[in-house]
Design goal:
With 97 residues, the chain is an alpha+beta fold. The protein has two helices and five strands; from the N terminus they run ααβββββ. It has helices spanning 2-29, 36-45, and strands at residues 49-58, 67-68, 70-78, 83-89, 93-94. The strands form two sheets. A three-stranded antiparallel sheet has the order 1-3-4. A two-stranded antiparallel sheet has the order 2-5.
Length: 97
């Protein structure tokens, strides 16, 4: 019986490692999309999602060398009048004249 319990613990640890890898991969590839399940759960508590918008914005150039910081802004409006704003900053890019 101890042997079966040890195998079960190892199996759950393996599942945990696989899930963590998937979560890290998702966060790396599309960080703004990572928040969608949380938005849906909040929508259930707040009467539903009324409107969603997503904008990609490139910040102003500044510094030496001139760099701009792109960001994704996601705004979710709920039926009770509240809203959720998620901003994800990306790596700086060189400005082109």
């Amino acid at each position: 019986m101890i042997r079966g319990a040890g195998a079960l613990v190892i199996f759950f640890m393996l599942l945990l490692v696989i899930f963590a890898g998937v979560a890290v991969g998702t966060a790396y590839m599309a960080p703004a999309r990572l928040f969608i399940p949380q938005e849906r759960m909040l929508g259930v508590l707040r009467g539903g999602v009324v409107n969603e918008t997503e904008n990609s914005v490139l910040g102003d150039c500044g510094g030496s060398p001139p760099l701009a910081v792109p960001r994704n802004e996601r705004v979710v409006q709920f039926a009770d009048g509240s809203s959720l704003v998620i901003v994800v900053y990306n790596t700086p890019v060189l400005c082109t004249p």
